[in-house]
Amino acid sequence: xxxxxxxxxxxxxxxxxxxxxxxxxxxxxxxxxxxxxxxxxxxxxxxxxxxxxxxxxxxxxxxxxxxxxxxxxxxxxxxxxxxxxxxxxxxxxxxxxxxxxxxxxxxxxxxxxxxxxxxxxxxxxxxxxxxxxxxxxxxxxxxxxxxxxxxxxxxxxxxxxxxxxxxxxxxxxxxxxxxxxxxxxxxxxxxxxxxxxxxxxxxxxxxxxxxxxxxxxxxxxxxxxxxxxxxxxxxxxxxxxxxxxxxxxxxxxxxxxxxxxxxxxxxxxxxxxxxxxxxxxxxxxxxxxxxxxxxxxxxxxxxxxxxxxxxxxxxxxxxxxxxxxxxxxxxxxxxxxxxxxxxxxxxxxxxxxxxxxxxxxxxxxxxxxxxxxxxxxxxxxxxxxxxxxxxxxxxxxxxxxxxxxxxxxxxxxxxxxxxxxxxxxxxxxxxxxxxxxxxxxxxxxxxxxxxxxxxxxxxxxxxxxxxxxxxxxxxxxxxxxxxxxxx
Length: 487
Ligand code: ADP
Description:
It is a single chain. The chain is an alpha/beta fold. The chain has 17 helices and 20 strands. It has helices at 14-28, 90-93, 109-127, 143-149, 178-183, 203-210, 219-224, 235-240, 275-287, 311-324, 337-349, 362-371, 387-393, 404-409, 430-446, 448-460, 465-483, and strands at residues 34-38, 50-51, 56-58, 66-76, 81-88, 100-101, 104-105, 133-137, 161-166, 174-175, 196-197, 200-202, 213-216, 245-247, 298-305, 328-335, 354-358, 374-377, 397-401, 423-425. It has a six-stranded parallel sheet with strand order 17-16-15-18-19-20. Strands 1, 2, 3, 4 and 5 form a five-stranded mixed sheet that branches. α4 packs across α6 and α9 (275-287) packs across α12. It is globular and about 70 Å long. Adenosine-5'-diphosphate (ADP) binds next to α1, β15, β16 and α12. The site of adenosine-5'-diphosphate (ADP) has 18 residues, from α1, β15, β16 and α12.
């Protein structure tokens, strides 16, 4: 696997969690999994790391080679062990951030991630280890299938199949045409039915055209991205490749996210005994300076602050919510300035009802999942979404827009029958969000038995990798057969 993020080394969003947990499940099934990742400046050095002897030569730009140091890290435990390789290159990866600094996206992202892709292939030769499948994640690794179909085609790695996973179609990796020369990918690939898009290189598009199989992180998103509404301009490409586009639902790491063993929360709890959740609620209320009141429902947000997540819809109605409902709101997130300042202002205005932490905190994410009653995800689009899966495992019911993976993972509440695992709404509007929060709020106060039943339903769901890892295994098998020309 080649990826820009992986828990616990570097995380921006759910992609990191997937790359941190899927290999464990695959290794448990007996596969030899190796992961290549940049060694960002923010990654703390580990004791069990070993450097490969001498530098790795990275074959870029038709002979203008570059070099990097490679750290080999044995990872996992007795049941599931695999190897992580970190690429140390100060100019490309010495800075702490993955994609963007305080002034926006790093301007050399094209070069940085081309380097990652090419280095991953060169590392295979260096290790004399030829994988059956290279699993590339998102646009940053989009050149991998292009390499396999061009300069590598008649070399040993040309045998390898490429499975390319779209975690988020919105980010496509668009750069100047000259990036192909830097990469050492022939200009004949600069075609509209390959990597070219409106005179630029589009890494995502090139990968969709050239990967052996393309997966997305939920079945519903796999269909959605073939429509103009969700296709981000690539809907025709995805339709063309439809037979090779497969939706595989993300799983979660049940060991890291387990209310029975979680060490980030003050009291553990289980589906049989939810009493610990009350202690977690109290701790959360204290932590965010909210009124300590077990009887009031907490509606939580744990999110990157970006347009995709629809949090402006929540900001629009927050005053209205505070005045009309007896609820609390707990917010954890960072990102766009307007959202950061919007939630900070609300916290200042309603200090005992709204609590926010503007920043990144894994430990607080665990506490919020454990101590809240509802999780808000009014997303405009959501390829899969992991946050709702963690929330449900902790008995926190998602309130979400019915899009992408949220549809595949949340069962709509059926009032009066105690069925469902959360609350879904269709329209991208503050009104729809407001009324759905109202519905959840009345369920909490007036239909306590049903609320409890929904918590049990949500906690009973199995979102572990067990099923999805088998689906990936199937996709890898199809990809290998297809690459080797077998029917
Ligand atoms: P996305 O990948 O679009 O960000 P996901 O729901 O798939 O959305 O994954 C988000 C992941 O990032 C979850 O593990 C969530 O807990 C975590 N996360 C998001 N924002 C924060 C934050 N501010 N602090 C800690 N964890 C966060």
